[in-house]
Amino acid sequence: MKLLWLQASGCGGCTQSLLGDTARRGVLERLAGAGVDIAAHPALSEASGEEALAQLRAAADGSLAFDILCVEGALLRGPNGSGRFHMLSGSGEPMIEWVRRLAARARVVVAVGSCTAFGGIGAGGDNLTEACGLQFDGAEPGGLLGAGFRALGGLPVVNVAGCPIHADWLIDTLMAIAADAFTADDLDELQRPRFYAEQLVHHGCPKNEFYEFKASAQKLSDLGCLMENLGCKGTQAHADCNVRPWHGVGSCIRGGFTCIACTEPNFESPGHPFMETPKVAGIPTGLPLDMPKAWFVALAALSKSATPKRVRESATRDHPVMLPAGKKGTRS
Amino acid sequence: MTRIVVGPFNRVEGDLEVALDIADSRVREARVSASLYRGFENLLIGRDPLDALVVVPRICGICSVSQSAAAAAALAAAAGIATPANGQFAKNLIQACENVADHLTHFYCFFMPDFAREAYAGAPWHAAIRARFVAQRGTALADYLPARADFLRLMGYLAGKWPHTLALQPGGTTRAITPTEKVRLAAVLREFRAFLEGPLFGDALENIAALRDAAGLAAWSEARDADAARFVRIALALGLDRIGRAEDRFLACAAYPETTGAFLPGGVWHGGETQAFDTAAIREDASHAWFAGDAPLAPASGETRPLPDGKPAAYTWCKAPRYAGAVVETGALARQLLAGQPLLGELVASHGASVLARVVARLIEVARVLPRMEHWLAAIEPGEPFCGEWRKPESGSGSGLIEAARGTLGHWLSIERGRIAGYQIVAPTTWNFSPRDAAGQPGALEQALAGLPVTDGDTNPVLVQHVVRSFDPCMVCTVH
């Protein structure tokens, strides 16, 4: 399958994350082996300048057939709908025009990263550049291509959201597409691949014991749960970061810092400082999505009173101060 | 006179367009344009100060940690927070991991594939180089990408993930590693050293760092079956040691703080003389950029007001930073000149900053930094603190200057009523790829391109590709 990749208004970090895939001989061989031919990519193609432009022109006018269009980066509609805040260099035309034309010729369109899916970090604040996603503007369907858009293969835009993506999220999506094993049923309501978006970051959280006992960190680098004070959205964010490690060993929470729900629309504008938990009467407002609030509060009070000393003491340190006790009668 | 416009520029980070005016088979003038505006400085205004740590890494996916580090330094300066020793060593390791990986991603993915092009089909070395370095399929990538992925495990342990970590905080880092993780990290560094001393250099890092002069470099390259040696041989055969010169005035800030002093010194290097770097000498000029305001401003009082309808003399979204009014070049070559590395001093003394000198500087830097990473890791004491507590100032200001892979990166921020009131960023490629200033001085790349020979009718001169990529531009940082 021939793949064309465009970089719109983004940071290129999803490409960097992709290149960090842990395949034994590298991601490019892994994709090639799966039948994904990266015919054009701004960071990887030999072609540059006029030859690269000629290829895009041919793809846009139909004389060069291709299958998958990957777009990385938000679509800038500004100023005033003209798209002139991002001109595809050398072409004299706004990037959004290129994206519209190429999307109309693609069998599958993939939004790589939260910028491309929903608008992302650059859509925060006053959004002067009028940044949006391919088929969403924040959580609202629409975006550059419109809610009704369907690629030639029948799918809406596939939103591999994340800031950045985990390499596997994109690789597994592309390999499934190449194997003709990807359908509309594989997408959630925000058009994200369900294989990672039907999980919560909370699943497999390394701070699970601190969460259970509501033993909370007071500051970053503390071992305790980051939810009560430090803005962590792991119980609400759809992704499998703590089940599928980053670089084989890491994740945001494993790194000792807050999950900011970067796979979600509007994550860039949480309405509170990212690393502070908003509270009403001392109770965090952002509680787990599908748990009755009264139960959460009751359980939290109960579990706090049952917290083992070991967990309570370690929660506000950067390394454990006591070991888990052994069984009665054995040395701990 | 004819004008050719080269773009889109693939294998650079972000969107770049270069217009060349050609007469008598030479580039008369070059104009470098960044064709994207993103608006990061403005969307920081009014936010909680620590929110900068979420926002600024997302300026750039390849310099992400560098942006974090500069913001953390500016916040620490504004709040008067110190970093414990472990936190500083961990920050150095995280930054060095990004910088070293970036240097090699540039070498293997962005720069070397140009030698596999058809333009060199007649060269005796072409077939072998094409097999090794052709874009996406060269055998070198199957060596480099897995080695890079293994090296990035360091980010997994110390920073959770890369890019876009929140591990770098004003007071240190968020992840206190255990003694066993320290042992495991030593293995990560050891295994990456094996890649460097194998496919890349075919020699001990200490021998690379000790290369003293051009004759020694040439002799070294003749004797080696290694990627860096292949590059040196081709570059000398093509005369790339003599093209790409800009103003030969170099800027770096002190990099990688240690218990006393810094691993790499800062300063301004010109004609073999070194002066201290005075940040008060920086001004940003917007005379040829699509921004309001013609008077050059110090970054601490800078502003970024885009002009959607353009303005007559402007041709880019990149401002023109100047140091004491002069054009400077920043990057690994600047750092290594200021550190007194003798080979690079001789290369620049002979033919100025060249394609060869810039690429060799990155390779030398890789060979110098990895052993220092081993030293920083050894100095970490598990059990001791990694992070000092953040205390938000209601008002204040601070700057953070650090060395990213591509050169000096500065953040200037002010806080009023507990919120960010001003934020200005001067990125490495803003220096290197700046447009003309009010005095008409072209930026560093614009100077480096002027005078290049161009065959009549060639719309995509390969020498232009080499010179542009020798700077390892990062346009997404530039157009923050």
Compile the SSE list and pairings.
The complex is a heterodimer of chains A (332) and B (480).
Chain A: E1 2-7, H1 13-19, H2 27-33, E2 37-40, H3 50-61, E3 68-72, E4 75-76, E5 87-88, E6 93-94, H4 95-103, E7 108-112, H5 114-118, E8 131-132, E9 136-137, E10 140-141, E11 158-160, H6 167-178, H7 194-197, H8 208-212, E12 279-280, E13 283-284, H9 293-305, H10 309-315
Parallel strand pairs in A: 1-2, 1-3, 3-7, 7-11
Antiparallel strand pairs in A: 4-8, 5-6, 9-10, 12-13
Chain B: E1 2-6, E2 16-23, E3 26-34, H1 40-44, H2 52-55, H3 64-79, H4 85-111, H5 126-133, H6 139-151, H7 153-159, E4 168-169, E5 172-173, H8 179-200, H9 205-209, H10 214-222, H11 227-238, E6 249-252, E7 255-257, E8 262-264, E9 267-270, E10 273-275, E11 282-285, E12 320-323, E13 329-330, H12 332-338, H13 342-351, H14 355-379, E14 396-404, E15 407-416, E16 419-426, H15 428-432, H16 444-449, H17 462-470, H18 475-478
Parallel strand pairs in B: 6-13
Antiparallel strand pairs in B: 1-2, 2-3, 4-5, 6-9, 7-8, 9-10, 11-12, 14-15, 15-16
Helix pairs in contact in B: 3-4, 4-6, 4-7, 4-14, 6-8, 8-14, 10-11, 11-14, 14-17
Seen as an oligomer or otherwise, the chain set is heterodimer
Major beta sheet summary of chain A: 5 strands, parallel
Low-confidence parts of chain B, pLDDT < 50 over ≥5 residues?
Answer: none
Rg of chain A over CA atoms, rounded to whole Å, is 22 Å
What fold name stands as the CATH topology of the largest domain in chain A?
Rossmann fold
Largest interface: A-B, 86 and 91 residues
Classify the fold: give the CATH topology of chain B: Cytochrome-c3 Hydrogenase, chain B
- Number of DSSP helices of chain B? 18
Order of strands, main sheet of chain B, comes to 10-9-6-13
Q: What do these coordinates show?
A:
The complex is a heterodimer of chains A (332) and B (480). By secondary structure, chain A is of the alpha/beta class. Chain A has 2 domains: 2-195, NADH:ubiquinone oxidoreductase-like, 20kDa subunit (Rossmann fold), CATH 3.40.50; 199-320, Cytochrome-c3 Hydrogenase, Chain A, domain 2. Chain A contains 10 helices and 13 strands. Chain A has helices spanning 13-19, 27-33, 50-61, 95-103, 114-118, 167-178, 194-197, 208-212, 293-305, 309-315; strands spanning 2-7, 37-40, 68-72, 75-76, 87-88, 93-94, 108-112, 131-132, 136-137, 140-141, 158-160, 279-280, 283-284. In chain A, the strands form 5 sheets. Chain A has a 5-stranded parallel sheet, sandwiched between helices. The longest helix of chain A has 13 residues, at 293-305. The N and C termini of chain A lie far apart (58 Å). The model of chain B has no long low-confidence stretch (mean pLDDT 96). Chain B has a 4-stranded mixed sheet. Chain B has a 3-stranded antiparallel sheet with strand order 1-2-3. Chain B has a 3-stranded antiparallel sheet with strand order 14-15-16. Chain B has one domain (2-478): Cytochrome-c3 Hydrogenase, chain B (Orthogonal Bundle), CATH 1.10.645.10. Chain B is 40% helix and 17% strand. Chain B is of the alpha+beta class. In chain B, helix 4 runs antiparallel to helix 6 (139-151). Chain B has helices at 40-44, 52-55, 64-79, 85-111, 126-133, 139-151, 153-159, 179-200, 205-209, 214-222, 227-238, 332-338, 342-351, 355-379, 428-432, 444-449, 462-470, 475-478; strands at 2-6, 16-23, 26-34, 168-169, 172-173, 249-252, 255-257, 262-264, 267-270, 273-275, 282-285, 320-323, 329-330, 396-404, 407-416, 419-426.
